[in-house]
Structure formats: structure tokens, C-alpha cells
Protein 1
Amino acid sequence: MRPFLMLSMLLSLAVAGCNRPGATDEAQAIRDIETRWNQMIVERDLKGIVGLYADDGVVMAPNMPPMQGPGPVTQVWGGLFQLPGFKLTITPVEVTVARSGDLAMDRGVYALTTTGPAGEVVENGKYVVVWKKVGEEWKVAADIFNANAAPAAPAPEPAA
Amino acid sequence: MRPFLMLSMLLSLAVAGCNRPGATDEAQAIRDIETRWNQMIVERDLKGIVGLYADDGVVMAPNMPPMQGPGPVTQVWGGLFQLPGFKLTITPVEVTVARSGDLAMDRGVYALTTTGPAGEVVENGKYVVVWKKVGEEWKVAADIFNANAAPAAPAPEPAA
């Protein structure tokens, strides 16, 4: 084989290696995990959800300190499951995967439903989940979210 | 040159190519940008701060919808600068760069100071900034944050 041809082939392989296995496939893989995540929420599959996070994965929820690692992540999701009438759906808007396939940004929106004294309350909000490859699997490195609007103030008491 | 030696050298170059210019350097570059960001906050350099964001960069602040693009990002930061006694410091805790050097997660903490009716109020919180390479520069793709604790309720009125 001619040296130039060999060099071309090796460089093609090397460039392909940087991009494996394809950013589109990887983005779809992450969207598929989020579909499962939504199902696990419906099924109250606490162990399954905690398993989506890396061992050093961190939930950064409003009004609490960062919760890092399986114990604290279990505490956050267990607390959510205790909310009266808890329902939650998460919907990715943009999933961007690094060319090297080891890090991805996933940002989207959520709808959190709970039951309050005046009935069902829906909080609409937004999130960023950063995914990283752990072995062959995508795992959550960081998960942060907040609401699109301040909670409605309770109705004022009528003046005495 | 022996074919095996040539192959080894080419593969070494290829592997180095995947990682260029070095994740540690890139993480430091991002930390350096955040140092400048803190300076620009002190200097009220609105244009400089907005220039840190990608053209499709989005600020995801609590209690407002996602604000995407230079106009909306200007609106958010302009609003912050209007807060009485506004001070803000951001401190990265972990910066993780993709091997391909085109995407990075930066999570950290912030302290936001404002002046309220009862004097200075400090809100401590946490953030995730996702950085992406635009040409040769790191730019903010997404910027999301929330507080570690709910704002203190106003002191209750003494009973009549």
C-alpha cells in the first residue's frame, strides 16, 4: 500500500473516532432516557430515577442546598413523591452533544402539578440537565431547574 | 521509517487531536472568563456581559420565562443592575470540559446582595452555566440558577 493512501485511511479513521457514535444518535439516546424518566415518575420508581444519576450527580433544586450523591438525590425525589397530588412531566427542548460524545447539555421545560388548599396547582418551569458518559451509559452530572413565575400569593383576607 | 513506527506516531497525533488543546487548559480558560465576568459585574459592563453569551444563549432565571438572545439577555442583566444595592459574585465549583473541547459544564455558587426595607439582604444560591465553543471562543449556551433557601418571610405584624 502506498504511504499516502495509508496515511489518508488512518486519518479518516482517527477523525471518525473523534465523533463516534454520532451526535444525532447520542442526542436521541438522551431523549429516550427522558421518556423513560417520565414513565418512572408515573410509576414512582425511586430507585430507577436515582440510578439515572452519576455517583457524583447533583440535584440543584430551588430553596435547598445542592444535593449530591445517591443518598441526597433519593431524599429529593422521595420528597417530591410525598407532595399531595404530585405529577411531573419533563420535555427536552434542546439536546446538544459534544463531538467526543462524553458530555451533553439538555435543556427543556417541565410542568409540576400538586394539590393545594384551593385545588390543583400547576407550576411551569425550565431545566438544564448536564449528562456525562459513565462507561457506556449517559448519567446525570447536574440537574437544575426553576419556575417561570413566582407562586401565586394566597388570596388576601377580606378587610374586617 | 518502519510502517509500525509510522502508524504509532499517526495514532498518537490522532488521539492528541481529539483532546486538543487540553481539558485542563480549557477549564482554566473558562474559570478565567468567570473572573472577568465578576469584574464586569462590578463595573456594570452590560455590553461586555451580554457578549459572553452565544447568539442563541439563554438565561433561565427564577420566576421568569427563558430569555434567549442578546436582547432578552440584556433585559435580564439590565434589570439586575437596577436592583437597589445590587452586588453579585459567582464562584465556579466544578468545570468539566468534553474531550473534544467544544462543550463544558460549569457549576458553582453565587452570592447576590440587594438592599431591602430592613437593610442588606444576601441570597446564596447555585448555578449551572453550559459553555460551547463558537469559533475559538467559549460562549454561554445556557445559564440557570436558583436560591439555596426561600426568601425570609416579612416579620409578622404584632397581633392587634
Protein 2
Amino acid sequence: MTDVRSVSQPTLFSFVGGESGDWSIVAQTCQAGDPLPRAAFLDVRPGPAQPSHPAGWTLRGVVSNERYVERPERDRLVATQAPLGRAECTRAALIPIRKSAAWWACTQDERRAIFEERSRHIALSLSYLPRVARRLHHSRDLGEPFDFLTWFDFAEKDAAAFDELVGRLRETEEWTYVDREIDIRVAR
Amino acid sequence: MTDVRSVSQPTLFSFVGGESGDWSIVAQTCQAGDPLPRAAFLDVRPGPAQPSHPAGWTLRGVVSNERYVERPERDRLVATQAPLGRAECTRAALIPIRKSAAWWACTQDERRAIFEERSRHIALSLSYLPRVARRLHHSRDLGEPFDFLTWFDFAEKDAAAFDELVGRLRETEEWTYVDREIDIRVAR
């Protein structure tokens, strides 16, 4: 899912799994590739961070400019989306993914065709807005183990809709290029 | 200018200006925005690096996937380009640039239209290949002071052609979005 903010400066965020944090991890499922060590809590912090517990992990990513969204799509997204952190959004998900070498060997037009013309990533996601809010973080150029970290939040009553959204995305052609994916569900 | 390698993993490079290095800096011109401190030598190193002299500077960037090149363009570039480091290439240039907030607020289709349909960045550059070899490094998401670092090398006899190439690029609509640019010429 694509973040649609116009970012004047890229902003680094750290997702820290460990023994403390604002969010309790209620489920952690490895969808593809190597799993991540299990953690009890997740903390979302602006800037760089280290895990406070030696068994924990930290994933970092940058909120940056969009790579695929075109003007009419951005206009629809901006008109429809909600911000993160609404009071009723007591459920959230962190979904780190990595895409295969075959994806990254594609040219821009080839990736765009898979992403939207054939997988309808933006169009499909739009129908779940504003129930689901999200922020995309780019990690690949930082030398991180994942290429993207997407952070979502939603009300408890919309958890089934969120499940449906991620289920539909996982059936797309785009997802055949995902070679590592962890689905981390949290509550506060 | 766009690097056309298919990168299976992003690769970090550091450009270190200081009192020693493989390349002598023969000219350092601020084209737009704030200058960089003058340095006598430039060293190009894979991976992270620090300047060995306190007055020096280090610029970092990642060779990453292409952001604008389409399939027919990549095929032409791959068929035409030469690698860096040919024996006769005793002249080189490091050109760090930053683009404005207005550029980064554009959507992908808007940036592509400026970059190629209106500024002919790829088409124009192709006519200087293989005389000029180059590698593009992405810096913006690393929190660096520049968005891109491009490293070029060429034979002494092609220095005038390189001057013509950068002169023509600076006259394009794309360059109206460049708000900081340093032109660093080196020899070995």
C-alpha cells in the first residue's frame, strides 16, 4: 500500500520488537521466507533506535516520495484517506515485506504495470479507506532485511475488513514477487 | 543521469573529500545553493567511510533500482554504455545535486514527464555514451545533504563532450528543480 503524503524531507521511523512498547503483539505470522524472532511488544519510534532487550529486533524505514502513484490516484487517495492515530484505532499491523531480485530487475514501466494495471494495488486499497489508515516506509536502500514496512491502524470493528484487504493483495500478481513477509498484529 | 545496472542488492558508496585520495580535485564549482568546503583530493570507497582529515567531507549514496527508465530505454542504454574504470579514463566528475520540494511533491507520472518526455534526460545522455561512463547513487532517503550523487569518468579527449552534456542538461526543464549542485572535476 502506498503512502500519499507529499514529503518535503524523508523521515526515518524505527519499529522495535522487544519486552516493552506501546503495542502488545497479539499475533506474528510468517507468510513467506525467514521468520522474525517472536517479541511480546512493539514500539514505533521516530528516528533511529536500538532494541532495549538483547533478544529484540529493530526494523527501520523512511517515509519518502511515492514511486508509483499517479496524479488522479493521489487526488483520490488524499480525498479518501484518514490519518494514523484516531482514538478508535486500537488495532494495528506491521507488515514487513521483501521483493525478489526479479522484481527489482524490472524497469519502472514493468513494475508499474504489475503493481497497478494488473494487480490493482491502489484501486483495491482505496475501497478500504478511510477505515484503514497506513504509512509506507522504504527500507531497501538502507541495507535493511526488508524492502518495505507498512504500518496500518484501524478500529477493532474493522479488523475483518483489514484481513480481507491483505488477503486480496496476497492473491495478486504483484505478490508473486514477495519473497519474505511477516504479518505482525498488535493491540493497545 | 540514470544508472542502468540491474541491482540485486543496493550498494553503498562513499565519496570522501580531504587531504588524500586516488583523485586530485582540479576544479570545484558551486552551480546552485550552498557550496561544499574545498578539498584537494577525492577518494571513492565502497561502503561507509569517514573523512581522514577534520576539514574534509563525506557524501554517501546507494546504487539502487532505476526510478524512471523504461524497458526500451534500458535496452538501448545497456547496448551503448561502457563500464567505469577504463584505462584511458583519467578524468572524472562527481556532481552532487539536490532537487526542490516542488520536485518531490510531484507524482511519479509528473516527474517522469518532466524528466524524459520534456527534458529528454535519457535520450540526450545516450548520444554521449560510451564516451562518458557513469554511476548514479541515491542519497535522499539516507538523510544526506544531496539527493543524488553522479560519478562520471571519461578520457581527457572527451572532456569537452562531457562539458557539453552537463551544459545541455542544465538548460532543461528538469534542472529548474535543482536547488543545489556542486560540480567537482578530478584527474588521476
Protein 3
Amino acid sequence: MTDEPRRRRTTRAARAPRSTAHHTQLRNPFAPAEVFSADQVEHLHQQALTLLEEFGLKVLLPEARARLAVAGAAVDEDTQMVRLDRGLVTAAVATAPAEFDLVARNPAHSVRIGGDHVMVLPVGGPPYVSDLRRGRRPGTMADFETFAKLAQRTDVLHAVSPAVEPQDIDLRLRNLRVGDAGLTLSDKPMYANSRGRASVEDSFEMCRLALGIDEATFLARPHVWTNINTNSPRQLDVPMCLGIIDFAAAGQVCIMTPFTLSGAMAPVSLAGALLLQHAEALAAITLSQVVRPGAPVVYGAFTSNVDMRSGAPAFGTPEAGKAAIASGQLARHLGLPWRSQAASTSNVEDAQGGYETMVSMMACVMGGANVVLHAAGWQEGGLTASLEKFVLDVEMLRIVAEMFQPVPMEVDDLAAASIGEVAPGGHFFGTAHTLERFESAFHEPTVFTRQNFGQWTDGGATTAAQRATAVWELWLETYEQPPMPDDCRAALDEFVARRVAEGGIAAD
Amino acid sequence: MTDEPRRRRTTRAARAPRSTAHHTQLRNPFAPAEVFSADQVEHLHQQALTLLEEFGLKVLLPEARARLAVAGAAVDEDTQMVRLDRGLVTAAVATAPAEFDLVARNPAHSVRIGGDHVMVLPVGGPPYVSDLRRGRRPGTMADFETFAKLAQRTDVLHAVSPAVEPQDIDLRLRNLRVGDAGLTLSDKPMYANSRGRASVEDSFEMCRLALGIDEATFLARPHVWTNINTNSPRQLDVPMCLGIIDFAAAGQVCIMTPFTLSGAMAPVSLAGALLLQHAEALAAITLSQVVRPGAPVVYGAFTSNVDMRSGAPAFGTPEAGKAAIASGQLARHLGLPWRSQAASTSNVEDAQGGYETMVSMMACVMGGANVVLHAAGWQEGGLTASLEKFVLDVEMLRIVAEMFQPVPMEVDDLAAASIGEVAPGGHFFGTAHTLERFESAFHEPTVFTRQNFGQWTDGGATTAAQRATAVWELWLETYEQPPMPDDCRAALDEFVARRVAEGGIAAD
């Protein structure tokens, strides 16, 4: 055995850059993998319905309890416990759409959510940011802007995310600053935190002003997305309930994501964690559909597990992989889009980070995830947004995006004549078939090297992470701000200035 | 959105090590993914048959041409070209078994090849070896022994491979030394290079002596495996032909692997590279079945692509991933086991190595590979066997092995009562359900850290690769040589000593 490459060189031709336009609208061509039988999926679903009927969940917002009570739920105001019967849940979930469009400021960047469509999003939520030049530090507004620009200029990322928490901005002004930056630095779909009613209303207004649309147009289609984490186990807190209600009322997109960490906030058995996840997702979706039947929701799933030694959360685990594939089955059982994520436990941009992120991505690909959150830049179990990890993840995402493309098999692709033309033991470097296609035949990496050992050593024997610094710097240098009509920009600026002058939003 | 882990600690309990006995016999529970329709698979297959009929291939060994001529092939002795008609190929391939056992010296380590079984193998073939203590250097016999020991003690690796070429051993003695080391340091199935008739016969004899079996027992079942790379395009050289003939005649396992690098030794279009791969595999399999109908073979597939800029081979590419999944379809179309590989282009144990290896492994998992070669230690496009990469890859392989295990869903697993027992917003750390299961609930990593940032920084802020050095050192320290009966050992020693005294084998 050798399996040993024969290393040859061709003259480097002037190359046309390969189009990656197909990365902006991704579809997963593979049939979804399954870890459960159809009977098991139905059994788990029925068990979740029973759990909501018998044990229920705690709902901290009076308005949410009142809305659910009106819909037929059994509410105990003393304990704030809400029990939902299976008829109510089943009818409510049935009104949620299987697919919908999320409209962007630039229509070319609108994305379809559901079916075989795949929406890929950068990391969301970390308090820290890191890069190899400046190290790990608390996130700032400048860092948020950096990630917004990078998301804008990256074809395989389909919206801006709350990539890092800008801790230098007062909480009362943070939503305004973040919304303003996201809308002006990017023309991809808008993200808004659900941190209370006034905050959400500000976000919706900023979106309308930036897009130059009136309220009716805004309400008619999804323009903004948010992510709702339940307080597992079995609790919906006040901002979450408000977010679900306000996004549903406005017909905007809620990703309902129980963060069911097996062994901590969820049972130590994977089936138990999935049962809790499913019950919580059903309850949150039910609230949204009670508020507005047909409101766009995504079945979110973030079941992973703790480390057996320390109790610390772990990501990129086999348990998380199986839970993800199972979650896809549960979402399809409900006829809803499914959100998963690519994540890792590693504290640094090393091989562990690559393997773990790719293991989670494998589960997303195999299971057919419709929304992949945290897919670029997630590090340190989600506590840090890393710029080098962002570049490395984007490289991986482009590989996955290329794997989604078909293998053409026309006569020219099969190249039988070309095969006959090359002598046995010869090579195809100089054939007409090769020369016609060579420049655009293959995916070309950005930060993964294909230098041989000698070239690579001469170039400093760098790791991929070390090379990634120059890449995000280049991406920032060559970033171009997308245009916004002057009147929209003026209206947005005026609104933000006014709300800042008013002191922004009381932190809630 | 936060998706933010709540970090808690549990008392570290005395933990029972988690059994990984199921890693020694792996089955892939997922339905195979497809990149081609059934019609496309049949079309490509027919095109390959036409290619063998019309263009044929060059066969450098007169005996191979003679055997194929007797079976009905059209042979031109002047050009050494052999054309195979579709009837001959179809009838020959039909005699190859769909599944078979590869018998190990220790019956517990025998492996099934085919169906949903997955045999995982370490890297094979590199001339160089590398570790972070000693750097990159030409491989030696000591390095070969190191990898044989590591393969023996690693549950998710199922046989010894030619992990590194021992360049300090004279070529005439190399086969004897390598066979002796593999058989005495491991009781997993034996690998033998196919480097000429005398070499192969020595290997078979060493196997018989080590196992204490007579020739009839040896011939009755597969005990030894080899890998045959065709000289793409369309050529079988002398040692390859001899290997195919001798392994087939002895009923031993040939993995037939065209190394069809798209854009170099194969057409630049992926369909064309797959067409060439398929034609060459069919020809090699036909030769084996002409020699002995029913001889065990594996449909090998190593279609990757060159780099567009340099013409250098690239691994872990999206093209290789799609080609792998397609190859699984082609192998199943023939009713044969399929060999693929996990590979990377990276020169170092970095994130690129992790992502690329995992992308290839994803294709193996999705496509349902029966044999995954190069799965531990492959670096630098296969030119280096890295000890740290070996450790990192084994970590990944164990994650994949755990993903193959079912998610139990009995009443206890669903834990509905436990969910009802924990207060909303509470946690499951102290429940009876958790305490009963916690110690063995989850996969536990070896080299991937789950320390938080502070602990990890205090511990030296190491990368996974840096931590891997201590792991392979520990694995070597705690390696235990498997027992061999004294009479077998004496017979093997006597044979090797005699053949060495005779000067070994003329290099061919």
C-alpha cells in the first residue's frame, strides 16, 4: 500500500475567481438521518404532551398565563404553573407554518426557512471576544460591528447575529446601538434581542425605518428574527414570554430553543433531555400560536451534555450529535423548521475546536437542520467569539456548501473520450478537457493551506489559526458598506438619536 | 439570545471507567446518503463497462494478461492492452462476496467487512513520521512498532496498518520485519504489503505460524488484508497484478483502490474521475475473481482532487466528500463492501487537520463506508504519520463510534417522573435518576479538554495537539503485548531468522 500522491506541478494560469453565488441560498440535498424509529418519535411526542398536561410549566409573565388560560390551559396563579392539554397544544402547533421567507433589506439576501433550505448564522451571545493579536477580552461595540461586517461580506452566512455582547454600551442603550449597527453595516436579515417590550418595539421600528416600509408591510411578512431560550427545566421567564408574545403578534420569527443540558438542567439520559426539550419547545410554540395563529416559529434544539467529571457544559459531543439528529426528527414530526448549531468546548482555535465544531456540523448536515446557529466564531463553550475561529469556520462552511452542490453527469462531465485519449499511466494535466475546466473545477480554500511541507516550512510553519488573523483583517479592509437610501438613513439616525436622548430602555 | 451555559460544579465522584467494548465491533445505523440517482449510478456503471470494452487497460504482468485472456478478455501482447467485455466483468464481479469475516489471531478481534459493519484502520504508507518531541523525520522500524502497539491498544482501530515505512530496514528484509512486528505486537488482523510473490508468500506463512494453523485452515478464511492502488489512469503494474493474483488464490482480502486524483491522474470533472475509478476497480476485481471466484475483495475508492493553483493533491475537500458518498453508491450497486478514508492536507496537527479529517469522516459516516483507512495519524497529505494526530483522530473516532450507538428510550430513559420531580428552573444534579447514571452516562474525552478558560490558562493554555504527546506516551507505557503460545512464537521466530539469514526477498 502506498496511497501516495504523485506530486506534480502545473503552470499557474491566470485564474478567474470561482463564483460562490450558490452559497447565499443553500439547500441540503441529503435525506435526513434518523436515530429514532417513527414509533419512537411519536412515543416521545406523546410523552411530552402528557408531561405538559400532568406537570405543566411555570410561566412568570401574568399576560402569558392569561393568554394561555383564555386558550384553555389550566392555570394556577399562586404557583404560576400552567398545564396545557394535548388538544390545545396539538391545535396550536398545527397553525405554525412549515416554511416561510425571512425578508432582508436587500431582497437578494432574503432567506427561506424550512424544507431543505439551510440558513447559516454566526455565533451569538458570547460576553467575550478574542483574536490572536489582542487576546481574550470583554466584548465591545467595536467588536459587534466587526462581526456584523464579517457576516455581511461572508456568502455562507445568511444574517447578522448578536455575535458578541457590547459591554461598553449601557444596557439601556445597547439594543438601539446594536440594531442601528446591524441595519446599517449589513443588508442581511435583522436580529433583535427579546429583552422586553420597549426594546422589541424599538427594534421593529428601526427595521421599518431602515427598509422604508410602513407597519402593515412590516407585519405582513417576517423581517426580524430572535432566539428564545427557555429557563430549563420547565420555566418561561418574563422577557422570554414578552419576546414570544411580541414577535408572534408582529408575525416575526421566534426560534424557540430550550437549552437542555443533559445531566444539569435536563435528565442525565438523552431520551429524558429530549423529552424535556420537546415539551418546552411545544409550550413556547403554543404560546406564540395562541397569540397569532400562523406566526413563524422555528423548533430550536440545543440538547448537549455536561462533562462527567466537572458538571461543566460540553459541546461537539457524540450525545449532542445524536440529540441533534433526533431533534430534526421531532421538528419534522411537527412539520416545523429545525434550528441546530455548530459548537465546541475548546478554549482555543486548535484541532479540538475543528473536530468538535465539525462533529456538530455533521449532525446538522445529516439531520437536515434548517437553521444552523453559532456556525462561525463559537469558542470556549460559547463564552467567546473568536475572530480566527470565525475564519476557520467559514472555510468549513464553504466546504459543506460545496458538498451540497450536485455532481454533474452529462457526457462532457463523464469525459470518456478524454479518458481514452490519455495513455495508461499518463496524466490529465494537459488534456483539452482539463484546460477548459481547470480554473473553476474545484473549491479553493482561503486559509487551509495546500503548500507542501517545504514551502510551508519556508513560510513560517504556521497553523491555520495563525494564518486566519490576516484573513479577517483583509476581509475587514475590503468590506463595503451596503447602500441605504438617504431618506431611510436619515429617519433611522433621527430615531436612534431621539431614543438615545430619551435615555433608551429601562433594563428589564 | 444567550444560549449561555450555566456553569455549575458537582462533587467529583469516584468514577467507574465507561466501557467502550462496543467500539471493537462497529455498525453504522444511518441509511446511506446519496449524491446520484439510481439511474445515474447505473449509467456511470454502464459507461465504465463500455470504457473497459472499448479502451481497456494496460496490464504489465504477462501472467495476469494470460489469466484474463483465458477468461475471455481481448489481449494485445504488443501493447499489453487488455479489453474486457461487459459480460466477463459482470459475471466476475457477481462472484465476489458481499460480506465476510477477516480473522484475527485473537478471535475477539476478528472483524466483519460489509453490510453496516465499519472497520477502522490507522494511517498507511507515509515515508515520514512526526511527533512534537522529535519533529518530522524518516520512518524507522521503531516507529512502525510504535504504531502497531498503538493500533493494538486502541479499541476503535480494528487492525494493524503499514502506518509508516521503516526506512532503516533493507527492502529485502522489510516485509519480514514488518510482518513479524505486526503479528507479535498485535493480535488484530494482519496486514501484508503486496510487493511481489515471495514477499506475499512469506507473509502468509508468518500468519499461519503465528496463528498455529495449517495451510488448509488459512486458505479457508480471510486472515490477511492488503491494499492495491492501480496506476491510474488505466494501468496495473507487476507487483499489483501479483498481489491481486496471490491474495485471490489464497482467499485473502484485497482492497482495490484506484487513486484517481481529479485533475491529475483522472479527469478534472468529478464524474469523469469516478468513471475512471469505477472502471479500474471493476478491472482489478475481475482479475481477482478470474483467479478465484468468491475471493474476498473490497471496492476501494480514493478520488480526491488537485489544488487548482499548484496541481498538488488535496484532501478533506468537498469534491472528495461527494466522490466518497458516490463511491459508496457504486460499491453497493456491485453488492460489495466499500473502503474510504479520513484524510487531510494539513502539514500540522491544527484546526485545518481537524476540519479536513472530519469532513472526510463525515462522508464515510454519511455514505456508509465499510472500511475507513488512514483514520488515525494521517498528516501532510499522507506523507507523514503523526503521533499527535493519531491521538486526536482516535478521540474523533470514539465520538463517531458513540454516535453509532442507539439512544435508549425505555421508561427509565425518558425520566418523566424525574422531570416532574425537579422544580421549574431547578436542576437535575442531585436527582436519584442522575446519581444512578451519572458516572457512565456520557462519552468522556481523552485529549479534548473541558476545562474552563481559567483552569485551562492556569494549566498552560495548551492546544489539543500539545496535550496529545503525553497521551501517546502514556498509551505506549501502558501497552501490554498480547500473548502468543510459545510454540507459535518459536516457529515464527525460527522462520523469520531463517529467511533473514537467506537474505530475505529480492526487491521487485
